[in-house]
Design a protein that fits this description.
By secondary structure, this protein is α/β, with parallel strands linked by helices. It is 28% helix and 30% strand.
């Protein structure tokens, strides 16, 4: 997708999927991830920003909420996995930066 460098953003709604941001500043922005290709953000700052999940990403959260209603421990297992408690952090793991 697109690469943005040294850009200031103020009070914008930005779709992050697949984009690369280098040394950008986000002030009061809504940063949206919809479950597509991972964004890359290197050397960026976010001030007073809001993170929003839509599409497939939002559906995943909804599924976890439903699962939590039936089996809270399994959702805690997902959260532990995300936090790195039950897996190795290798070089192939996607990262924002």
């Amino acid at each position: 997708m697109a690469k943005y460098e040294n850009q200031p953003y103020s009070k914008k709604r930005l779709s992050l999927d697949g984009n690369t941001y280098v040394n950008c500043h986000f002030d009061g922005c809504t940063l949206v991830y919809a479950g597509g290709e991972f964004p890359r953000m290197t050397g960026c700052s976010v001030v007073n920003g809001t993170w929003k999940l839509e599409g497939a990403a939002s559906n995943t959260i909804d599924f976890l909420a439903l699962l939590h209603d039936e089996d809270p421990e399994s959702v805690q297992g997902f959260l532990d996995f995300i936090a790195g408690k039950n897996r190795a952090r290798g070089p192939d793991r996607p990262r924002l930066s």
